[in-house]
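sry for the spam today, last one i promise. struct tokens for design, 361 residues
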């Protein structure tokens, strides 16, 4: 009896291995990001790139924290650091807001609609340097080993989803204008996407960029609205509600620096520490944001509390610009879709994942 069961189990396993090319199938992922060095986007990319459960199809660069030219340079350098620059393509994406003139009118927005608690404006607070190669050379004093993949991020998203129907997860951790443009160009891809995991929005806690809006979705509210209203099979939102449970301070960042032996990533983490804590007083509070989305992509059981509701984003040019709403009861607005709004995560397990990532570098 035991031998028959064993042989049957072995046959099933052999079939699975054959179908998956010798290993259990990995989840196909596209990371759409406004890339920075190390925390938070950079480490989210490395977590996905080094995960045994994930096949990172590509990194598509959008704006938000940085301009696209900066994001490309930072992504390439960090992939070089872990010797994955030829394995994972990086693609140039959209570098402007859906609403024209946002940067020019920014001071008017601040004066009229108010500012959030961290005063952070990302790329809007500086001039677009324009060329990724010059950003790379200036930042690292050397020539890059590789270049971004030919083609555009929007086309890459469309083609990847169509080539792998029902298999691609999109981890959306920047201003979601690449994904929104893909949906406008090819609305047929929405039901073909396996799921979308956003880091964006704030539902039941105050905003950080304005009193009511979180940074990523505030950068391009129209794009965020297009995305959350698309008929995806599954949408998971990691808003500030969840991120606020994962602050990290100077001692924790110092601990992570100590764990990291990779010279390039170590120097990026140290630069982050010096910038935020170098004066002896924190310039602003740090939280885990995008890394939570990457961790949830790898292990969905990290979600400990959530609310499922129809979701919409305010695109009226007023105090609520960029803020989302959750319609938990009653009749939701026409065209809205359901999403899982994560309000808490298993912080202890995520910290272990981050510690392990840093130690592996």
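last one done:
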């Amino acid at each position: 009896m035991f031998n028959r069961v064993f042989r049957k189990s072995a046959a099933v396993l052999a079939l699975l291995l054959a179908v998956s090319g010798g290993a259990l199938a990995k989840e196909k992922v596209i990371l759409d990001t406004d890339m920075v060095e190390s925390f938070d986007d950079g480490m989210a990319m490395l977590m996905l790139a080094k995960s045994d459960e994930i096949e990172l199809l590509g990194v598509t660069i959008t704006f938000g924290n940085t301009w696209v030219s900066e994001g490309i340079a930072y992504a390439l350098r960090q992939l070089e650091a872990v010797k994955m620059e030829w394995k994972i393509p990086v693609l140039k994406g959209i570098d402007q807001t859906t609403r024209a003139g946002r940067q020019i009118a920014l001071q008017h927005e601040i004066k009229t609609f108010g500012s959030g608690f961290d005063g952070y404006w990302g790329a809007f607070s500086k001039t677009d340097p324009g060329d990724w190669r010059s950003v790379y050379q200036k930042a690292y004093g050397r020539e890059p080993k590789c270049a971004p993949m030919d083609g555009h991020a929007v086309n890459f998203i469309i083609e990847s989803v169509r080539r792998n129907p029902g298999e691609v997860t999109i981890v959306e951790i920047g201003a979601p204008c690449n994904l929104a443009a893909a949906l406008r160009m090819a609305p047929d891809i929405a039901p073909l996407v396996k799921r979308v995991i956003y880091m964006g929005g704030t539902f039941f806690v105050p905003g950080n960029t304005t009193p009511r809006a979180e940074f990523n979705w505030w950068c391009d509210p129209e794009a965020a609205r297009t995305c959350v209203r698309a008929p995806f099979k599954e949408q998971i939102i990691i808003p500030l509600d969840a991120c606020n449970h994962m602050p990290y301070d100077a001692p924790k960042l110092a601990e992570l620096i100590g764990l990291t032996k990779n010279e390039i990533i170590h120097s990026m983490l140290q630069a982050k520490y010096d910038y935020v804590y170098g004066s002896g007083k924190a310039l602003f509070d740090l939280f885990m944001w995008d890394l939570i989305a990457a961790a949830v992509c790898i292990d969905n059981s990290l979600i400990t509390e959530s609310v499922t509701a129809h979701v919409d984003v305010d695109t009226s040019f007023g105090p609520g610009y960029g803020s989302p709403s959750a319609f938990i009861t009653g009749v939701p607005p026409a065209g809205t879709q359901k999403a899982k709004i994560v309000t808490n995560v298993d912080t202890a397990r995520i910290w272990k994942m981050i510690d392990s990532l840093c130690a592996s570098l």
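Residues 39-360 form a domain with the Inosine-uridine Nucleoside N-ribohydrolase; Chain A fold (CATH 3.90.245.10). ok im logging off now
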